[in-house]
Amino acid sequence: MDPSSGYWFRAPTPDDLASVAEVLIEDQRADGVEPVLDAHFMRQVWSRSNFDLAADAWVATDGSTMIVAYGQVRQEEPDIVGSWGVVHPQHRGRGIGSSLFDRIEGRATELLAGVASPRFRHSVNGQDVAAEAMARVRGLRPIRHYWHMQIDLPEPIAPGTAPGGVEIGRVEPRRDLRSVHGILEESFAQDRGDHPGPFDRWAEEEARSPTYDPTLWLLARDSGMAIGALTASAGDGGGWVDWLGVLASHRGRGIGAALLRRSFGMFSARGVRRAMVNVDAENATGATAVYERVGMRVVNRWDLWERSS
After folding, report:
1. 3-class SS at 150?
2. Do 158 and 77 share a structural domain?
């Protein structure tokens, strides 16, 4: 954007994390959404592999150098680039979002150069009509719908009991990581987009995250066989259930719900007062019903848009 308009774009630095998080929070509040994306979320985003903060992200600043917008791209797979962006509500309608989208698309084109069947994806808050319009004009179409779900933990939560014959315990990384990964891989094998990926890459991604805390992870066993897993993390604004999976052979016995209740108990014991999860609204395994049964509610909706060629 031309400096004469009063706004400048630059690459963010690690020192900008709190300011970028504040833009996300204000964006959610303006759309009537309970804020769930915050500094904890941004720390995870910026720690991911195949993401170069200097080349793959932008902030927009006003005349006072205040950050008023943020956008990014990331090569998620060799043929897929994902992106998203937000503009502070007080600075909407001034062309910042469109200029940000131009930069996002330009970088996505570079990352997908030479790919036979490239797919460009953009995440849009379900309440952001302007962002939806920009995505549609640029040839993107909604392909998936997600929910952020949450449960409040105002007081200590009893962990509850596990289904008969099932033992739920904590994870010992050196011994259990492959079991956790194997359960998640099988659980998400038919998922249209979310899956852990190869073990080495998944393990490295988890370990390099600033919120990596395997003391919050759980493993369910039946007669010694690992059959269910939950990974979680805790940050400034609450706790997140990052992955939850149960082998198909053991579904329908309440194991997923038992893992969640145990996780809520661990969060509350640490003084964490809310737990959240990001879930595919059309999850074929019935995960959304499990989250609802343990008391979680939808606090935000967002959509994934895609353009392929």
Report:
1. strand
2. no
Looking at the structure, tell me whether residues 103 and 220 fall in a common domain: no
Nearest Cα residue to 302 out of 67, 46, 131, 74: 131
104 and 203 in a single domain? The answer is no
How far is it, in rounded angstroms, from Cα 132 to Cα 145? Answer: 13
**Tens digit of each residue's pLDDT (9 = 90 or more) over 22-65:** 999 999 999 888 889 999 899 999 998 889 999 999 999 998 89
Question: What's this model's pTM, rounded to 2 decimal places?
Answer: 0.89
Residues 167 and 66: their CA atoms lie apart, in Å, by 51
- 307 falls within a domain: no
Please give the residue range of the domain that contains residue 214: 151-301
Q: How far apart are CA 32 and CA 125, in angstroms?
A: 11
Distance of CA 260 to the CA centre of its chain: 18
* 50/54 Cα distance (integer angstroms): 12
3-state SS of 40-62 is: HHHHHHHHCCCCCHHHHEEEEEC
Q: What is the CATH number of the domain that holds 26?
A: 3.40.630.30
Residue type for 34, please? E
